[in-house]
TrEMBL record:
It comes from the Eukaryota. One of its GO terms (molecular function) is beta-glucosidase activity. SUPFAM superfamilies: (Trans)glycosidases (SSF51445), Beta-D-glucan exohydrolase, C-terminal domain (SSF52279). Keywords: Glycosidase, Hydrolase. Coiled coil: none annotated. It catalyses: Hydrolysis of terminal, non-reducing beta-D-glucosyl residues with release of beta-D-glucose. It holds the Pfam family Glyco_hydro_3. This is beta-glucosidase. Residues 401-564 form the PA14 domain. Belongs to the glycosyl hydrolase 3 family. It is an enzyme of class 3 (hydrolase). Its EC number is 3.2.1.21. GO terms for biological process: glucan catabolic process.
Amino acid sequence: MSTATKFASANLDDVVEALTQEEAISLIGGHGMWHTAPIPRLGVPALKVSDGPNGVRGNHFFCSTPAKVIPSATALGATFDPVLIQSVASKLLAAEAKLRAASVILAPTVNIQRSPLGGRSFESFSEDPYLSGTIASAYIKQGDYINWTKRLNHSQAMIRSCLPEASLREIYLYPFMLAQKYSKPWAFMTAYNKVNGIHASENAFLLQDVLRKEWGSDACTMSDWFGTYSIAESINAGLDLEMPGTIKFRSEHHTAWSIHCRKITLKTVKERAKSVLNLVQRASKGCPEVLDGDGEERTNDCEEDTARMRDLAARTIVLLKNDRDTLPLSVNSLTKVAVIGGNAKAPVLSGGGSAALKPSFFVNPFEGIVRALSGRQVMYAEGARTSKTLPSLDYDIINAKGGKGFDAEWYSHDENDQPLTTPHKLLEVDETNIFISTSTPKEISTRWTMKLRGFMRPRDEDTKFEFGLTVAGRAKLYIDGNLVIDNWTLQRRGVAFFNTGTEEECGIYLLKKGVAHEILVEFNNVRGPAEGEVGDQGTLFGGPGVRLGGAPVINETDEIQKAVRLAAEAEVAIVVVGLNGDWETEGHDRTTLKLPGRTDELVTRVAEANPNTVVVTQTGSAIEMPWVGEVAAIVHSWYLGNSTGDAIADILFGNVNPSAKLSLTFPLRLEDTPSYGHMPSEGTVFYAEDLFVGYKHYVRSKVPTLFPFGHGLSYTTFDIDELVVTNPSGSDMNFVARVHVQNTGGRVGSEVVQIYVTPSSESKASHPVRSLRGYGKTHDLAPGESVEVEVKLDKLALSMWDAPHNCWKIEKGTYTVIVGRSAENVLLSQQIQVTKEQFWNGL
């Protein structure tokens, strides 16, 4: 019988009783970067976790296993379709986790987009807590026994989040509460920041009072990576597991000393250890083959999964505008199409940071459009550059054998800190954005050098080419033996590689037609000096990396003029613009809602040249669109993963009828956002908007928006009528809203019924005018077909947090149930009565 199978039936109380102090301490701190500690003596296997949320990376940032990358969380939220999300989690993500030998995915990120500027906004489902909670529940609840870790509360790193109790409960804890109620995850992850003065990893109110006592959760609680800041405080507060197991607080020596000093007790340590053992046992019961496997990471692409990812990506795309029924485009009526924009050919598939993955394949928008047009003339112009750093050269660099990427040589240093003449390790590296993290070779010296050698693919014509070099450490770029970039001698500090890297340094080199120019990047893991510093600035343990990007040098004015000329020649101009993982990433926030550089000018000029201009935007969150009234159609595609281009083409050419709705509000301008003036990237953040997050602010204040929460068009039309709402009854105050939905257009389509509820007419509290409390989705209604949609609601739909009584409260009075096409577009309403005030707690 295997180790995992045996442990699946073990009596945990007996195991805990048998633990030595040293073994108990080992269990409450990670073992290496991604594992829990094994206890071989007692048959306890190690459990492996892996990053999410839009795929499963595996153990390594460096030379990672190619992955299936699904759309960003904001895109998943836009489906308003928990059944679809549960299917994706079960059939794609769980299978991917098993291929990575992982039992727990560190996802989803259950946060609220209180501001679209948040660098990690793309990782969370919505600005609305109900939508976030129900989609999170579906993501977690699936049939294969891979489970999920949810990040607990607001996760801006190292800041102090100060917020009223009502908004903590009704906005930020609410989606976690729903996920616990409906899916009971095996694990929760704490955030980096302080919540009302106490770090989340030391916050007994969150970890004990709310999660365990009030909600009844028996989940394991773990810290975000390096998000533990104490020994006694975190253990006593209820944090079961410190992650990772490198450079950790809970070392055997320090934790044993804390026991000796009676800051903690062995009993408490064993309680935390039991929670970790419970997580391991659940994984042992659900997927023993993962824990007992060989630990090797694998990838497995198949036609079924590729089709599933393409279909999912298309179902997340939101049709924002469609004047004159410009879309869908008819392939048969087109002879010449212009595809324009910095995102059209760029490898934009996800946001940045720990969510970034290496795709097993990728289809860019240009490729998808060309495929769909079946040989018709497609013209291209970049127009205006949208990247923050120069694009990766993953498909431009080849090694000596002609394969993708570099030949790498890893050298140890001698006692004089000079690289040895014989490489310590040779390997092929198939990427040009290289984050070593902890993947250094065994027995290499503390300071080391890596030399990356390759060749640029030959060009069709002489090309002035601009290269960009970013490094966490120090690096130089040589081309044909010539020094082109020195990011070694003097550096500028930047935010790359999780805030350990430099700013990008650039250099230009003439690439000759037909010549495979030799590329050499030499870098090591020691920081060079910045201005005012002298000598090297120390070894980067765990965080060295180097990125080589590049693109042909362009005159942007000439390139915009080229784009305008091509647009004028074409029957339709498709402009693909947006952001990427440099702009939206872990580690720092955006500073503006504007698109990069001269993008807005490009869109305006192209629209002037061609009235049939369709704009495809690629972002994980909201952006400004000053040209919104100038273009015929706008499609918002989010970050879509591997099948980006094919999914966009499916929408543009009508193979899929769009049915997604915005999971967050697109404001007219940054100054209109509810958190404006209250969202610095460091220090103390006061949640001064209180309950009025997202659409709740815009509706209350009657502030006009660009596109409201819940907005999304279709290529067909729907009538929604005959609203009937039952009166709340029973201890859970259950009630139902029913509507009749009919497809009144000419195409098969799907529609979302959005149910909002107003506060009691007798309430004296300051509360949102309306809040989303339920939704239902029809699927593939044929023209003329109708269906009754039933949306079930309960006491949560009527409740608000009552701080004086420390519980939920349902006020008596008249409530209004609203059916909307969006948060701002009210279609139907009906009043219901609550005759008695009620208080409740728990789930």
